[in-house]
Design a protein that fits this description.
Layout: H1 16-29, H2 34-44, H3 53-79, H4 84-106
Length: 113
Amino acid sequence: MPNRTRTNELKIFLNDDEKYILERKFLQSGMQSKSAFIRHLILYGYVYEVDYSHLQEYNSALARIGNNLNQIARRINTTGNIYKDDIDEVKELMEKIWHTQKSMLSQQPLIKQ
C-alpha cells in the first residue's frame, strides 16, 4: 500500500492473560480497529507508577493484630471464659485495623480520567 501514512510496524508478544485483557478492553472500547485502539492507548493512555512500600508496614501491622487475636482466642478456648478485657482488646485491635486501612487508602493516588 503505497499511500500508507503509518509505515512503522510494531510487533509485540503477549501471554494468554495479556492477550485476553487486550481483547476485552478493545471490545469494550467500541473502536473498529485494534490498531487504532492501540494507537489511542499510546497517545492518550496513562502509565502509573504506584509505590506499594507502605503495604509492607500495613501487612506487618495486620500480622501483629492477627497474632494478638489468636492469643485471645487461645485464652478463651483454654479457660472457656470471655473476659471484658479480652473484648476491649478485640475492639481496640479492630479499631487499629480500620485506622490502618484508612491510612493506607489515603496514600493511594487519585486517578482521574
